[in-house]
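I keep forgetting this: the sequence line spells out the residues, with the fold written below as integer tokens. I include a record here:
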Amino acid sequence: MKHMLRSRRQITPVHKAIADDAAKAGLSIKSIINLLTSQSGGHEFNGFLDNDFRNYISAKRRTKMIKGDGHAIMKYFHKMQLQDPSYFYLVQLDDDDNFILNVFWPDGRSIIDYQHFGDVVCFDTTYKTNAYGRPFAPFVSVNQHKKSIIFGAALLYDETISSFKWLFETFLSAMSGKQPRTILTDQCPAMAKAIEEVFFETHHRLCMWHIYQNAAKNLSHIFHSSKQFANDFSSCVYEYEDEDEWLQVWNSMLNKYMLTDNKWCSGIFEVRKKWAMVYGRHMFTADMKSTQRSESMNNVLKKYLDAKNNFIHFFDNYDRLLSDKRYDELPIEFRMRERVPVLQANVEMLRHTSKVYTPAVYKMFQSEYMKVLDCVMHKVDKSESVTSYKVQCGRKDQEHLVTLEISTKTVKCSCMKFTFVGILCAHTLKVLDKKNIKQLPPQYILNRWTRDAKIGTIKDNYSIGVENSPQESIGKRYSFLSHNFREILTLASESEDMYEHACEDFRKLMKSLQKMKSRQKRQLDVQIRD
């Protein structure tokens, strides 16, 4: 235990050099420690404890922040807020108010998007995005076209409970207190604890893809020795509608592969309600089962960023990413309004939904509807108001229990696809078709999936109407002025007197605007100094 004595512990210049190179490459602190431990032959030969190294990295990050970044960041945010009054930002400082710890910011358009599509949020952290090695944490979801959107992002000091808790509380403050119905994350204990304390109205789901990947890593000997195990484990992740049946299958799998005493299996079983689909069918996820939306956004962001960027370059490039992603929506919107969807069957249900849903969601719905042709059903029970059916689509599909209350056109299926995806399943559509209900009942049309999903005014946390973005506001003002000034120019060109009069007024107007701009700049400088 002598390597634990304070007098024997030292981070050498060689260690620091290796650590600095690894940090520039984007490795996490844990990965750097593992690298140094592997090179030295064990923790006891490192010459320092893990916490010593973490403190060194933290101190270095804090030192880097001394070089004017704090002032530059505040100036940047003030500038953005002048352009976009609904732009939100919050910076957390350390106890001495000298160093920036955590930063969170959404613009006005992100606030709008959250109010429309914030029922589900993917949250993930990643390194490798800035010169400070700080985790970058975007809040991501999908819009009505099933395309990724960002509700805001953060640069965190570390991945501790306190940092996550500060971030989630700040996020709610920016979004007027609206909690998501579901949040998807990876399996991070600190994140889970913070979600439990802050998002108390929210279902917490773990990324199914990460669960499967962790299984492949922790149970690699089983995966390699049995081809069937992958299918059995995948069934436990994605299938089953009855909890008792799932428990029976899970225990049978553990016995079959002699995993009853496996520590990883026991640990994952404790949090089964966060990842097994049998427990998640009642939670709306907008057809998302993993945090890959968030991870994909991180990968896109890396194309815009250089790991050597300082904070200001980081924010500028992040804004460029947002602008490009939002512009990508315009061609989709244009095509949606210019083209008529191709119907696989010319029936009223598809004609109706093709006019209601966006093309991406209609494609999902049409796929479900076409399965109706392969469905078989039979009545199993009937009461005064509710009729029950057993429905099966295709040979491999299990039987599902569907109930219909004809007076209200209320239909429910044991697969609960509408609950977690937001569109009706083939089983319920089969029953509706059998009862000659040819249009989708309005209670089964989620507004977030419709062509008009974004119609309506959104107010920010100051009860101010939110504009889409500062760029869009500038564009609208420019278009309005161009149209009106064109009429002035046409009239002023008709005679020399009107021309001279217009030129004189233009000179006065230009001087007035220049003075106004200078005054606004001085006000901004005063705000930053204060």
Q: What stands out?
A: The mean pLDDT is 83.
